Task: inverse folding
């Protein structure tokens, strides 16, 4: 990809906490997510995920605006 081009990305994760960040008089609602190790979609669009082990040092987290959360689903 060339510099300056935008592309869509998606992440699958578990919401750990919601919080509010205030800066210069404006507030933003944010979420802390524990990101899954890998995620794919099968030919029918059904997600398949691999979680990091609970004690993994490789576990990754991200912060995003709650308005960026597209779908909330529950995996069984």
Result:
């Amino acid at each position: 990809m060339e510099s300056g081009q935008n592309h869509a990305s998606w992440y699958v994760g578990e919401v750990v906490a919601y919080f509010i960040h205030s800066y210069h008089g404006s507030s933003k609602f944010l979420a802390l997510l524990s990101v899954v190790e890998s995620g794919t979609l099968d030919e029918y669009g059904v997600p398949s995920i691999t979680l990091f082990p609970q004690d993994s040092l490789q576990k990754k987290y991200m912060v995003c605006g709650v308005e960026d959360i597209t779908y909330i689903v529950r995996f069984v």
Observations:
- The mean pLDDT is 84.
- The two ends are 36 Å apart (CA to CA).
